[in-house]
Structures are given as structure tokens and as C-alpha cells.
Amino acid sequence: MKILMLCLGNICRSPLAEGILRKKVQDLNLDWSIDSAGTSAYHAGEAPDPRSQAVALAHGIDLSQQRSRALKPKDFAIFDLILAMDSQNYQDARKMAQGEEQKAKVQLIMNFERPNFNQAVPDPYWDDNGFELVYKMLDRACEALIQQLT
Fold it and tell me: How far apart are CA 101 and CA 28, in angstroms?
């Protein structure tokens, strides 16, 4: 299984989702590949936001080696699932997809916890206090994802 986490800048939400899922997958000895990207290239090459890194470290997850990158057309061929954090990134990714098979790979991550609810993971960039909430949401979604796919 190859999963790509997707948000806007790939410095807050998707790096957290990547780190959370990667740790869970490693703990379970699953042969999965996890990565993350953004629908924009605003922060290409940058490390995750220090606040994302801090909340992840508080939960035993190190994001320091991750670097932001933009979603590329080839990602649709590489990954089995592209999990968007919100409806805007979901729509932007589906516009980039070529054909129905690629579009079907794009899903909202929180729908694994609450199917068809289409809940967004809020962008904590403008809210220092939002990072722990985002961590908890993504942790629940990643747990549900593993339960459904294993």
C-alpha cells in the first residue's frame, strides 16, 4: 500500500498525517509506503512547521527529516491513495488527476473515521493552539484507515 497525504503547503497537516501513519505502520510491521505533498509549492524544500514538529515530538514522532514538496502528476501513478485534508485540496487534486481511476484515488482522510461526513482537518497555520486538535483528528483517522485496509 502506498499512501500520499495532501494539504495546501505540506508543512502543517500532511506532514503530521505522514508521521502519524508512518509510525503506526512501522509499529504493525506493515509493508506500506507513506509520503506527503501539497497542492501548492509555496514551501517547497522546507521542513515541517516547528509547531507541527513540536506536537509530533510530544507524541514520540520525529518529522525533522521531512521536506515539503508539491503534488506531481506522476504521484497519481505511484500512490494507491491520495488523502486530502480538506475539500479544496481534494478538488485541486482531482482536477490534476487524469481519468476516473486516478480521481478515485483522491479521498478525504477524515472519511475513514466518519464515512461520507466530509469533515475537513482545519489548517492550524494561523492558530498556535490548533496543532494538538489536528494531531488528535489525524491520529483517529489513521487508526481507522489501518483498521479498514488491513
Answer: 29
